[in-house]
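User: My instructor asked us to take a sequence, write out its structure as tokens, and then describe one feature of it. I'm not sure where to start. Here is the sequence I was given:
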Amino acid sequence: MTSVKEFRVEEEPAPSALGRGSFVFTDDYSVFDWGKMPDEIPDKGASLCSMGAFNFELLEEEGVPTHYRGVVPEGSAGPVALADADSPPTEMAIDLTQVPDLPRSGREYDYDAYHAAAGDNYLVPLEVVFRNSVPVGSSLRERADPADVGLDFPEWPEGVVQLEQPIVEFSTKYEESDRYLAREEADRIAGKADVADLEALAREVNRVVTERAATADLTHEDGKIECLYVGGEIRVADVVGTFDENRFTFHGQQVSKEFLRQYHKRTQPEWVEAVAEAKATAKSRGLADWKSLCDVDPEPLPDELISAARDLYAAGTNAYVDRDLFDAPSLEDAVAAVRDY
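Assistant: Let's start with the prediction itself. The structure tokens for your sequence are:
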């Protein structure tokens, strides 16, 4: 199980064939890599499932291969298209690929062993990140100078930098703390999947999501994809273009779980700092398990913020898919309600 969705297996994948299974989306949320937080956000799981399904169906219309097989409404005998679901679904049927163990010693990971076990059917152990803007606080500002990513600035400006062309980066997926990679190392970790093909796929996904978001007056700021490799083909996996995987804004206001990150930074700085210190300590000691070094736990959210977060997810999904899946206020009103948090 991931921090926000459960994983069901109906048919195990084999070295020569994909299996079958499903994601079951919960109402849990996670920030700062913590995992399950103290609260649940009602309808969040159905929101992510609906947006993810909608985007997979858009991608398939554009000829982009994915692992998506449909949504599974409650009581349904099998997967159907999102349009055929009478209520917001929480289960998504998918093809399954192999995910071998990734051996490690401290913070050293054995990707050669991973690929030796994977063969020609595996989940690529990378996240492919695309950025349409570089906001204040972006990790990119800490890792690179503007010139390093083709920008004509002597230093990073104070405001958001809107990019003429998206920036694509690669980070690790299965390491205890995500680590951004030079292209050469990303190509090695990707195995038989070529990083140029992964980048091209990410750019196409970004285009589709960005264009769709614009129809709902949303600005698509950044996001990521995960991919599987099978028989020489790369397919989009996991979930695409949701308010957890991607960052969207509506007239400058965050419409994603980013506003929850920022809320914790403002109201629980001791916990946020303890998380950062634990990660740094684990890195300096060569340890993978940073969370055991953190001696501060996050506090629950106030009830009114949980309600506002629910409405933001629900209203944003309604606007994005152009359908009243949820009983929710307008996106404009939902955004206004969270602005003061």
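For the description part of your assignment, you could build on this observation: The chain has nine helices and 14 strands. Try explaining in your own words what that tells you about the chain.
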